[in-house]
Amino acid sequence: MTTHKIRVGMVGGGPGAGIAKAHRMGMRLDDRYELVAGVFSRSLEKSQQAAVELGVDPDRVYESYEQMALQESARERGIEAVVIVTPNDSHFPVACAFLEAGIHVICDKPMTGDLDEAERLHDIAESRGLVFALTHNYSAYAMVREAAHLVRAGALGELRIAMVEHASGWAWTSVEDDLNNKQAAWRLDPAQSGTTSLISDLGTHAHQLLRFVSGQEVTEVSAELNTCVPGRRVFDDAQLQVRLANGARGSLWVSMAATGHEHGLRFRLFGDKASLEWCQMDPHYLTLNYPDGRRETRVQGHDSQSDDQARLTRIGLGHPEGFIESFANLYSDIADVIERYRDTAQSACQDRPLPTSRDGLLGVRFVKAVDESHNAQGRWVSIAL
Amino acid sequence: MTTHKIRVGMVGGGPGAGIAKAHRMGMRLDDRYELVAGVFSRSLEKSQQAAVELGVDPDRVYESYEQMALQESARERGIEAVVIVTPNDSHFPVACAFLEAGIHVICDKPMTGDLDEAERLHDIAESRGLVFALTHNYSAYAMVREAAHLVRAGALGELRIAMVEHASGWAWTSVEDDLNNKQAAWRLDPAQSGTTSLISDLGTHAHQLLRFVSGQEVTEVSAELNTCVPGRRVFDDAQLQVRLANGARGSLWVSMAATGHEHGLRFRLFGDKASLEWCQMDPHYLTLNYPDGRRETRVQGHDSQSDDQARLTRIGLGHPEGFIESFANLYSDIADVIERYRDTAQSACQDRPLPTSRDGLLGVRFVKAVDESHNAQGRWVSIAL
Amino acid sequence: MTTHKIRVGMVGGGPGAGIAKAHRMGMRLDDRYELVAGVFSRSLEKSQQAAVELGVDPDRVYESYEQMALQESARERGIEAVVIVTPNDSHFPVACAFLEAGIHVICDKPMTGDLDEAERLHDIAESRGLVFALTHNYSAYAMVREAAHLVRAGALGELRIAMVEHASGWAWTSVEDDLNNKQAAWRLDPAQSGTTSLISDLGTHAHQLLRFVSGQEVTEVSAELNTCVPGRRVFDDAQLQVRLANGARGSLWVSMAATGHEHGLRFRLFGDKASLEWCQMDPHYLTLNYPDGRRETRVQGHDSQSDDQARLTRIGLGHPEGFIESFANLYSDIADVIERYRDTAQSACQDRPLPTSRDGLLGVRFVKAVDESHNAQGRWVSIAL
Amino acid sequence: MTTHKIRVGMVGGGPGAGIAKAHRMGMRLDDRYELVAGVFSRSLEKSQQAAVELGVDPDRVYESYEQMALQESARERGIEAVVIVTPNDSHFPVACAFLEAGIHVICDKPMTGDLDEAERLHDIAESRGLVFALTHNYSAYAMVREAAHLVRAGALGELRIAMVEHASGWAWTSVEDDLNNKQAAWRLDPAQSGTTSLISDLGTHAHQLLRFVSGQEVTEVSAELNTCVPGRRVFDDAQLQVRLANGARGSLWVSMAATGHEHGLRFRLFGDKASLEWCQMDPHYLTLNYPDGRRETRVQGHDSQSDDQARLTRIGLGHPEGFIESFANLYSDIADVIERYRDTAQSACQDRPLPTSRDGLLGVRFVKAVDESHNAQGRWVSIAL
Hints:
Mean pLDDT of chain A: 96
Pfam families (chains A, B, C, D): GFO_IDH_MocA (PF01408), GFO_IDH_MocA_C3 (PF22725)
CATH superfamily of the largest domain in chain A: Dihydrodipicolinate Reductase, domain 2
Oligomer: homotetramer
Strand content of chain A: 15-25%
Radius of gyration of chain A: 21 Å
Domain GFO/IDH/MocA-like oxidoreductase (chains A, B, C, D): 144-277
Protein name (chains A, B, C, D): Gfo/Idh/MocA family oxidoreductase
InterPro entries (chains A, B, C, D): Gfo/Idh/MocA-like_OxRdtase_N, Gfo/Idh/MocA_oxidoreduct, GFO_IDH_MocA-like_dom, NAD(P)-bd_dom_sf
Domain Gfo/Idh/MocA-like oxidoreductase N-terminal (chains A, B, C, D): 6-135
Low-confidence stretches of chain A: none
């Protein structure tokens, strides 16, 4: 059986947009998507240039996302899904436009910068019944899936302690002073990204990953935010304590000033039977530690592991897969769900655990709770579920 | 500036062909190739099925490689290059057919199973002046390039000792008894693959990688071959000693019976200033050890590293890239060379260090020397350069 | 030049006293002490038995520490120093008795269980001018000394973030239910050890180690204490946030319920130039991470390292030293200071950085501040310096 | 029950003798020996100085080992054992003198420099029935004992491949040109140590360790010796292939020119069920690798491990023990055997697997076989068992 490729459009992702490259490589790897339309830039000219480079028909490059949503939904063989890789503050209107046009949405995280918008977008996404996938790609790594499987299978027993870090070193020094560093200019400008961009950018990944693997909601947070780099106008380090729904406790360390770290994303979960650790830098390994002194590292790609892990491993047996493959995994799962939707008009995805608008909403609530706690000198703040 | 994608055909790579998938994913990642023709199987029916899955026009699926070479070379906008992923014993005639038709060749390793064919193919490739790339993908890992750069820049000083391992565990037990395991059936049958398929398959990778990184030729070898798994009819373990052109010594351990290993590819080089190690399982790291007690691991993706490393890193800074990316790196370099050829009709590639027919020829000579040494009780055997 | 061995007595350390063994092995390794007197147990009979095993003259086994302090101080060639390895709540009276008798004190940590006693003991120790060494052995590891040296030499630049863990797994399950486990019975009984024995036992090590290496005082703490193991009557997990004197922030995770960990002691310090990490489990390594992508692990025992490191390395060059050697290092430094005292009647020790009564006092204040913060729902509590 | 300490004398071990320090610290750690006599140097004056430092009665410092053997054996409460830490070429006469005087011998390795002497010493040691222990300390590491236990318990299945390295970097450059480096002067002078001192010094450790852990004898060797450092007059690198009694194959890499290594001692054994690896640099870990993708590192000091491991662990649970403890372990086992001898006049030691004169003899035969093979261009040479 063959299926036609999924036709997608993209909003954002023009010249210099780093994360859009990862999205496109993730789509290409398993060859299940074709990029056929887009608004790649606010400038139509730049957008057309990008279209040439990306092999997109110039007739399907639009002046605005509204126009694209309208015309593509009206068109025969128009796009089935849109990928939104614009700055966070535009996610809400763009996503709404496409959902209202009956087009599935694949949206970069965080879902929105504003809590009210997050609540509304979640409601809209739920009510339309379309696929809404938030691209928390880290939970699509094969061994993160394996970890989630093991936790649910009881390998750790009851969860007690969760230690999560997303402590990057990317902004260890005044990168915002480099005029060529557009990422820095945008992310470190409080006017554009708020003072808690650290939590929006990295903290939401840590939050989603913890929830995904542990199966526990984060119910309360106590936050200590700090600015390490002199002259910086946003927070660049966060020491967070969390309480989980089952009573477990933990810490999330989120930073962009962890000098000497690269991306610094890892988690450790401790249950009453064993503990488990995973590090994004070495994603093909997953380690379980047992109280009898065994530290058992499981290597990706063996038959002994879960179906989910197997499905998301392309080569296996010592041929490591990395970050781009995590995007490809996510896009592969999204493709499965969209293909089923064609037949069933259902967006449910129990065996394809995509991050959804609910994850997006909880992530934005988490950002706001961190902000509130910090402003109250670290008081514990609840997060509505 | 934009360039049209490189039009390629493929010989081999039908259902179940593992390595062809890696080739195709490698081509897709950076979107510089389009697969437009093929003989994917000896069975035309299976070949047509594969074409549908791969999105190849059925009119460009051929009954034989000879036909494909003829018709594509005659066609306007025919293929510029062919990817050969057939069993080793057919590499020679297939490669010759396309070279003679003026089509660049991208050929899986080992170049041939027969030394005489290797000699002739090398001569033909040289004389035609086309691009002939052998897909030793490991030397295209970014940090292997970094290693080669460091060695040439003198970071190790004069090379003294080389320790290379390609000690896989894939055939640790009687996998050939599993009728569903077609890889095993083929590779472990002396009638199809010879008794030294271990050296052809894995040993040639180790040999090429050593030569690539060290910049030294392997001039002599002393071999001890063994069969570990009872009942097996080919050698599954090889302990090799080597002498290098500059007088350095070393060992190559090549195995498919290294129980508990996955792919087991790594190298360590010791000079008179420092030593260096790299492991394919963790390819984004490269470690230099200094006599003053510093063990310096360099992480892929930093500006402080070589241009070659930078060029072959897509995301960087803690977003690991793996095996598929190594294929993509190789295909990216091949694309650069083919694009230049369009303008210059030159296949030279000094700054794009592709494995060529010379590497293929030396690899086959190495296989033969190992065989000869083993049959002479480990006598040292010279390898012509 | 030779010096006579230092004559020591011991209070505590009879049958089953684990840590006393480490003290005695630490004293023996470099052969600079002789154990000549003791009150090894509350039972004189058990004390005498221990004396026989330890080769101590039965005439110098005493019924009480008071008697021992009196008689040894009066005796010609009496003990010069006493080692106190009794339960924490008796450290105060025992230490006072010997200090008042003019005998140097080597006291197990924490200094006392009671803050008032700690304040008084510190005053007495200061005013008597004798050697008072608290056996925080971890800061005597050679590579911890190296770390402290590097921090002071500016290798990290200005400290920003400190992440310290003493997350043991020793009490991961209800070890207190095992009647043979006397350690557990004692440490996990709130009546004997208080509900915050976790902080006294392990937290004070983490606190001292952080202060020692960073050179920064801990000025404020916010604490979240928890009991993971059902039925347990003391806290077994602590998530602590700290503020340091220079404005740096950090987290201390202290646990005895970290399933799958052994001793779990490690620190990471991040400055504005580089970061540094050390793990007690692999104490002969120290890693510096630089923002240019180098992770530099320094191996104990090289000339390129600090004098302090060199002095505390016995064999070096790949012959690892461990926990017992850390005690030996501490006892070696104490011996140096006591030997100087013989000549100078000065207990100052700038180049032998022994933990003193001030470290003990700050440790007890830290325990109390943690307790107070937890009781106030994690409010930030200041620690007097 | 108490036993008196074992009275030992020492031959060698005066000022600057590195390994003698390790012997003495090994004896001290568990306090079961007292050093009461010695010939510490050829110079009586230096010997007396050493005695003062070591707390040895000057009346029991002798002019010659012959005198010491005679007088101590005649004396009431004379030494029960002698520790021989002289240069290799004097081991034979010294050991003979003490064995003939009825005194147990603890002899540094290699047993002798000369094969004929080794044969004779083995005969004498066997016929006298005294304890003769060769101080191959590495096989006394707790996790090496655990490894040997696991191999015998079938954890690996049938052994197939053995990869052993003792590749030190200590002589990576012309250390023999440094006049203050007495170790180098002695070990790198062919007149004093022969051209194969590398094999005597380090190779015999690798050989004994392989035999000890695997339970397999080395029956044949093929050797390639080399001199890396220009101007050096002895071999400093050896690439050895071996065949074991059960048909397994393997490689031993022995070097003193492995730049950037410290001591470089490690082994990996591959069976038909699993593989196992241990590294002296991190001796408290032992890793088993399984074909299902689990890499299981076992940490020293857990109840789940063998009795032998438990007996040789002092603290455990994350308090690492190292090189000095390996000597202490060996001395502890020797003490057990000597104490039994007091009662039984038997030196048998099945449950205390000490290296004996047979190990010493096989080691010297191994050295000679390596030399012979190298001189015959790597021809396979048999080793008599």
